[in-house]
Specification:
Number of helices: 2
Structural class: mainly alpha
Strand content: under 5%
Low-confidence stretches: none
Distance between the termini: 36 Å
Order of helices and strands: HH
Radius of gyration: 36 Å
Shape: rod-shaped
């Protein structure tokens, strides 16, 4: 039996390499997005701490106006930082989405090449079966003719 040689194996190998590269890019984009979301959550947690601290300062027996003002200022600054971080998160989310789309496309292209390879292999198998059947027929014919001549 002959050896199967897929003519587009180089293309399939290239698609597989591209897919691996895009997977790595996707993983980096995913990690970066998660890091930025963690930063946003930390900022929200800190704002909540300032809010709780503000309640505690206002409920003390003896109010310290300077601390309350500082607390209000810190809370307002956290609002600004949270808004800025939300913009950053959205930009990283967009990068993540682009990487996800690229990964989906790379996977589709690789699968398409694999299907083409499978079809080519199926055709190869059929051709081999036909060649084997032809060879068997030729042998049978040869043996029959040889016996018929010997029998004369």
């Amino acid at each position: 039996m002959a050896r199967f040689n897929y003519k587009l194996q180089g293309v399939l190998n290239l698609r597989m390499q591209q897919e691996e590269q895009v997977k790595m890019e996707f993983a980096v984009a995913n990690k970066n997005l998660n890091d930025q979301i963690d930063i946003l959550e930390e900022l929200k947690r800190r704002k909540e701490e300032y809010i709780q601290e503000g309640y505690a300062l206002r409920n003390e027996n003896r109010m310290n106006v300077r601390e309350i003002v500082d607390n209000n200022y810190a809370e307002k600054q956290m609002d600004v930082m949270i808004q800025d971080q939300q913009v950053v998160v959205e930009s990283y989310r967009a990068k993540y989405e682009v990487a996800r789309i690229k990964l989906t496309k790379a996977i589709q292209e690789r699968k398409m090449q694999e299907k083409l390879r499978e079809k080519a292999f199926a055709i190869f198998i059929e051709e081999e079966k036909e060649a084997e059947a032809k060879e068997t027929d030729e042998r049978s014919s040869f043996v029959y003719t040889k016996r018929a001549r010997e029998g004369e």
